[in-house]
Structures are given as C-alpha cells and as structure tokens.
Write a structure and sequence with these properties.
Layout: E1 10-11, E2 13-15, E3 18-20, E4 27-30, E5 37-41, H1 46-61, H2 63-66, H3 70-86, H4 88-99, H5 103-126, E6 130-132, E7 138-146, E8 149-153, H6 159-172, E9 176-180, H7 187-198, E10 206-208, H8 213-221, E11 228-232, H9 235-248, E12 252-255, E13 261-264, H10 270-282, E14 294-298, H11 302-315, H12 334-349, E15 353-356, E16 375-378, H13 385-388, E17 395-401, H14 404-412, E18 421-423, H15 427-436, E19 443-444, E20 463-464, H16 471-474, E21 477-485
Parallel strand pairs: 1-5, 8-9, 8-11, 9-10, 11-12, 13-14, 13-18, 14-17, 16-17, 18-19
Antiparallel strand pairs: 2-3, 4-5, 6-7, 7-21, 12-20, 15-16
Helix pairs in contact: 1-8, 3-5, 3-7, 4-5, 4-7, 5-6, 10-11
The protein binds nicotinamide-adenine-dinucleotide (NAD).
The site of nicotinamide-adenine-dinucleotide has 31 residues, from helix 8 and helix 9.
Length: 493
C-alpha cells in the first residue's frame, strides 16, 4: 500500500443545489487495485445534512415540482439516462477506480443505470391512479402522493446500479432525494448528480452528501424533514436504521445482506450449472448481495461438480480490473480483504478443506492491490461460521445433500433470504423447490439474471420492501383515499 495522501483538492459535494468543497474531514479515495490514493471528497456534517434536507423540502413542495406534468418529469429522467450513456466511459472508470470492479462489468452497469432512468421515465408517464368500487352515490378514488424528502443510503459494491434503483423511482414518484453514498464510493453519485442537474433537475431536488454512516448517515436518518428512508447495505446497519425510523414513525425500505443457496440436483446439466455457480459467486469478486455463496450439490454428483469447480476457480483470470481479459479484480478494500481472510481462517479452524484459493495471488503486479484468489471450501456443515456469515468475497462453501427434504431444510436454515438458484431437468421439482425456498428471488437453470421490471427484495434478515418494477414507484408514495359525493343535495345549488 502506498501511503502518500493529500495530493488532491477535495471534490465538491452537492448540498441543496450548491456544490460545496470542504477540506476538513475529507475522505481519501484509495484505488483497491494498487493501494494508491485516487482523490479526496468533501464530507457532510450535521449542518450540511440540515441544509440539504431543508432545501429538499422546499424544492419538493414547490408547485413547479409538485405539479410537474408526468411527461415533463419523464423527459428529465430521459435526459438523465441520455447523459449517463454519453458519459459511459467516465462513469465506468470512476466506479472501477473506487471499488475495483472489472471494467467490463462497470460498463454493463452504466448501461443498466441509464436503462433504469429510462424505465422509470416510462412508468412515470403511464402509471395512473385508481377509481375504486364505491358503495353509494359517490366517486371513490385512490391517489398516490410522494413522501416529500427521501433519504437514500447506499453501499459500495455497485453504486451505479443501487443509486439509480433508488433515485429514479423516487424522483418519478415526485419526491426530492438526499443521497448518502458509501464512504468508499462517493464519486459515482456525485458524477450522476452533475448529469442530473444538467438534465434540468430543479436545484434542491437531489443532494449528494458523502460521509461516514456514523456522522452523515445518522444525521440524515434522524433529521425530522426526512419522511422515508431507502437503504441498501448490511443487515446490522439496516437494523439500526429501522430502529431509528421506528422511533420517528417513518417508513423504510431495506435491501440487506444474503447467503444465498445455489442448488445442483443430480439430473442437472452439470457444465451449465458449473458455469452458473462460477458466475454466481466470483463475478464482482463475490461482492454481490445475491452471490450464490452456499452451494448444495446432490451427493451423487458431488465429486464431478467439485472437481470442475476447483478447475474453474484455479483458472479464473484474476487481474487488474482494466486488463482486457480480467475476470476478477480486487475486492473493494484492504480492511475488507482482512475480513475475508479471517472468515476463510475460521473455515480452516472449523475443519473445512480449502480446495481452491484461500490466499492472495502470487503475481507481482497484483501485490499492491486488495486481491484474493477465488476460493472453494468443502467439508464444513451448515452450522460453520463461513457457511452462516455473509463473507461478501470470492468464497464458495460446498455442501452435499441427499434428497429434496434434506436440501430444503439445509437451504432454509439461515437468517437470510435474498436469492437462490436451482439446477434440475425435473420441472415439477423445480417448481416445488422454488416455492419452498425462503428467498425473495429464485433462479431456475440460470443465475443472476435480473430485470428492472421484476420486483427485488429479501425475505427474513435480507430486508423489507421491494425495489424495482412498476411497484418500485409505489415504494416512494403514500396512498390517499378520496370520497367525492355525487349527490346534488350536498352541494349548494
Ligand atoms: P454497510 O451497511 O456497512 O453500509 C451501507 C451504507 O450505510 C453506507 O453508505 C454507510 O456509510 C451507511 N451507514 C452505516 N452506518 C450507518 C448509520 N448508523 N446510519 C446511517 N447510515 C449508515 O454496507 P456496505 O459494507 O457498504 O455494503 C455491503 C453490504 O450491503 C452487504 O451486506 C451486502 O449484502 C449489502 N447489499 C445488499 C444489496 C441488496 O439489494 N439486498 C445490494 C448490495 C449490497
């Protein structure tokens, strides 16, 4: 790790329509691919949070935003999508620099972020209110109204995707948004905010406040002007935010951690299943909330599956994230790698066998970065620490199962319930298992396919609420019932 710092001016943050730089408490951005400083970013304290929320309240209640016609709002969202596409390379490189994700994956996420704004532009323009069945001579309606100011708090693994998935529907719903990005990846949100301002978003409607969870995040969640919190991150943080929101009686949407079961039955097409498992755990260096990190293999095919997986893991190209054929970059930070290493050590201590990886790569050009080899562990049971805890790194635990009942019991024996995957040729079994798994998402004979049109969220400790899809807009609205008498006798004639 290189130790030089303070070579950069702090990048400005967006507070209520003003770009503000602040040297005090600025965050140093470290490139995880080589440990070098890549920039500094201003951070928000409680006074900045107050200024941003106050401006957001005023902007959200201004007639120009509140009464903006849906197609005009949709045009702004469409222009943000165009602006994101126009700056694809800059944004992709920025995310790569911040979290080490392989460049091609970052490029795909830029395309996805633009598509999310475009999708919510379409939803904004087409989603109506409802006339509900009345029980008398009146018109009864359900109208949907924004909360006002939404706090969006995001993690570091995919800021391009996560932030678009919150900001686009919240704006489409008519809110103002104050984004608190992860302290590891604050610059993607700032760059998209510049695009949004150029696209014609009124000042104050979007603020971006980098900073730590303890200072900036906490001040935001507890600010009386914030009327809803949309959070993506770890389960422990989500619980803390939900407690604060409960005290304030404001709604929360929580997209939290996972320890997703990926299942191979003995009738599956094994080569396709192994491809799915490898992508499902090693893409993004395993730093994905839906990573298939617990692999259950039916005992009859355990040996060939494990052999193929180990071979694939050993051959996976771990490299600098902008190397043309890199398949896996570093993990997002050095402290995070230490945590991964300590969980792999726990697996060794609890009797696990490290069949692949379990170490940093040997190549000299990777020595200064936060790299970790794709790791496959066998010999643990479902109670082991590495099988229970979300590692959020390139670490796969393989466990055998005997039959469907055994599989369901083991797969559901977890605090989490985000995603799952099933490989089988038996359609009835696929359906039965899909319905029995306690998870918000099931993939059958595929893994990690996602669509902005499909609601997304977790069971159990993986979260509350569903983002994405048409209902992703309703997450940021409250319904209002309106009863309107049609009786002329009730009106002065
Ligand atoms: P984290 O919980 O440490 O931090 C997430 C965000 O919360 C950061 O912006 C952080 O600064 C902020 N924060 C921390 N403490 C806070 C507080 N007291 N008040 C307000 N904000 C606070 O998570 P992370 O390490 O950035 O991200 C990894 C986690 O995110 C993993 O558990 C992963 O599974 C989860 N994740 C979930 C999804 C999903 O959609 N379900 C997607 C991506 C990541």
């Amino acid at each position: 790790m290189k130790s030089e710092t303070r070579t950069f001016e702090p990048e400005a943050m967006l507070v209520g329509g003003e770009w503000i730089s602040r040297d005090e408490q600025a965050l140093d951005a470290i490139n995880p691919a080589d440990g070098s400083p890549s920039g500094r970013v201003s951070t928000a304290d409680a006074a900045h949070v107050d200024a941003a929320v106050t401006a957001a309240r005023a902007a959200a209640s201004a007639r120009s935003w509140r009464d903006m016609l849906p197609h005009v709002r949709a045009q702004i969202l469409g222009r943000i999508a165009d602006g994101i596409r126009a700056q694809s390379e800059t944004l992709a490189h920025l995310q790569m620099l911040e979290n080490g994700k392989v460049l091609n994956e970052c490029r795909a996420q830029v395309v996805g972020a633009a598509a999310t704004y475009r999708y919510y532009a379409a939803v904004c323009e087409t989603l109506g209110a409802e006339i509900t069945p009345s029980r008398g001579n009146y018109l009864s309606m359900t109208a949907y109204e924004p909360y006002g100011v939404v706090a969006a708090i995001t993690p570091w693994n995919s800021p391009l995707t996560m932030e678009a998935q919150k900001i686009a529907p919240a704006l489409a719903a008519g809110n103002a948004v104050v984004l608190k990005p992860s302290e590891i990846t604050p610059r993607v949100g700032l760059a998209v905010a510049r695009i949004a301002m150029e696209a014609g978003l009124p000042p104050g409607i979007l603020s971006v406040l980098p900073g730590t969870g303890a200072i900036t995040g906490d001040a935001l969640v507890n600010h009386p002007g914030v009327r809803m919190v949309s959070f993506t991150g770890g389960t422990a943080t989500g619980r803390r935010i939900a407690e604060a929101a409960a005290r304030r009686l404001i709604p929360v949407a929580l997209e939290l951690g996972g320890k997703s079961p990926h299942v191979i039955f003995d009738d599956a097409r094994l080569d396709a299943a192994v491809d799915g498992v490898v992508d499902g755990i090693f893409e993004g260096s395993g730093q994905s909330c839906v990573a298939g990190s617990r692999l259950f293999v039916q005992r009859k095919v355990l040996e060939p599956v494990v052999r193929a997986l180990v071979d694939r893991a050993d051959r996976l190209r771990v490299d600098l994230p902008d190397a043309p054929d890199a398949q896996m970059g570093p993990v997002a930070g050095f402290r995070h790698r230490q945590r991964i290493e300590s969980l792999v050590q726990s697996a060794r201590d609890e009797g696990g066998e490290i069949l692949a990886g379990g170490a940093r790569p040997q190549e000299g050009r990777l020595a200064a970065g936060a790299f970790y080899r794709p790791t496959v562990i066998a010999g643990l049971d479902n109670r082991a620490t590495a099988v229970r805890e979300e590692i959020f790194g390139p670490v796969l635990c393989v466990l055998p199962f005997d039959d469907e009942d055994d599989l369901i019991a083991q797969a559901n024996d977890t605090a989490y319930g985000l995603a799952s995957g099933i490989w089988t040729a038996n359609y009835q079994r696929a359906w039965r298992v899909a319905r029995a798994l306690e998870a918000g998402l099931v993939w059958i004979n595929t893994y990690k396919q996602l669509s902005i049109a499909t609601p997304f969220g977790g069971f159990k400790d993986s979260g509350i609420g569903r983002e994405k899809g048409v209902t992703g807009v309703r997450l940021y609205q409250q319904s209002k019932g309106i009863y309107w008498s049609m009786d002329p006798a009730n009106v002065r004639g």
